[in-house]
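Dear Dr. H.,

I hope your travels went smoothly. While you were away I took the liberty of generating a structure for the chain from your last submission, since the lab meeting agenda had it listed for discussion. I wanted you to have the full record in hand beforehand rather than looking at slides cold. The sequence, exactly as received, is reproduced here:
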Amino acid sequence: MIRVLLVDDEPLVLIGMQSMINWAEQGFELVGTARNGSEALEKIDDLKPDIVVSDIRMPVMDGLTMVARCREKDNALPAFIMLTSYEEFSYVHRSMNLGAVDYLLKLELTEENLLAALERARNAVKKEKALRQPSSETVTGLERYRDRFFIHMYSGAFDSDVQIRSAAEELGIKLDSPWYAVAIASIRNRKEDIEHQITLSAGVTRMAADVLPKYMPCFVTVVDPRHFSVLFPLETPDDMQQCLMPVLEKANSILYKYFSATLWWGIGPAVNRLDKIPHSKREALSVLPVLSSSEPIGFTGSGAKPTLDHRARIVADIQKYIRNNLDKRLSLNDVAAVFNFSPGYLSQLFTQNGESSFVEFVTETRIAAAKDLMASTDLKIYEISHKLGFESAFYFSKVFKKLEGVSPRAYMQKLRGISFDKEETAEC
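The corresponding predicted structure, in token form, is as follows:
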């Protein structure tokens, strides 16, 4: 029987958890309670619980310090489930990095949620205890082979659908759905050092592996420090987008609250053969470069919005940004950074989905705005050039004449019905 210790400074919370479920009936032995982290550490040493359900914020010693002290002993047990409120997401982030296996919101604490968290913790305890047995090499080897199986399947290393099914059965992986779709998640956050990125990725991937199956069966596999893949079994491809969209949006919401990290999802088309899964993965990867903060989930295949339309919308968003920020630096690098694209990709995106290149669009938009200002205001040429982000009035005049065939001064005189004999080339 799995031994459980409850820790909280609020007596009513402790009483509530004690009476919320029938512990013995569910296979748990409630060995005791504690009112703070310091008291809990003593009881952990004495009672040797397998699972500790603990509040994060407590007097004397908080839950984070308690977890850290336990982990200083290089011991993966007990497994910790942390209790928190909406205001304490940063603490949950730290607790997950310390190795807590799950978290529960106090305001949403129910018998169902508590049992689900305890079950995940029980599985973690069983895995850890198995690792300590003589057969631990077999256990870790099996998990390693399962990860390698998915990596090989995604890469197309198997020769046939039959070979994939045979390998999956040997590893205890159930792949008997009629359809499958691959989603690739890109973990987006502020630029951090590689060590922090690896830690963040581990936490995000671990939580995603816990959260996603709550809503839909799936298999999560790490790709690299910034990406992980998810294989979704499907009954039918017809409503794939309607099924997956709410699941991924919910996962994004939870992961952002706890890690301040955004996930961009590329979802490949549904396929009805396991040996076609690499195609779904390739298509999923192709969607990632055209996603944005405003549209972080992109589909391909049947029932999805055409990728071309999606790219056109991205170009339209960029064009709108340019029109609204003509007074700012609008170099290719600057705008690419705003939309989280590489300069090369942004240039290609514009050329393929717009009526002109990026540089041409910026220039033409600025000159069009200059003509509007000349017609509707009394601003001087140097004031217009400054207002529209040109480096100098001289450069503005040079660009204007190249596009319009006359200098800005000549254009303004023509607007006002003033005749001129000679255009000036240097204007201020």
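Two observations you may find useful: Residues 306-428 form a domain with the Arc Repressor Mutant, subunit A fold (CATH 1.10.10.60). Strands lie at 2-7, 28-34, 51-55, 79-84, 102-105, 179-188, 219-224, 227-234, 262-267, 297-299.

With kind regards,
E. W.
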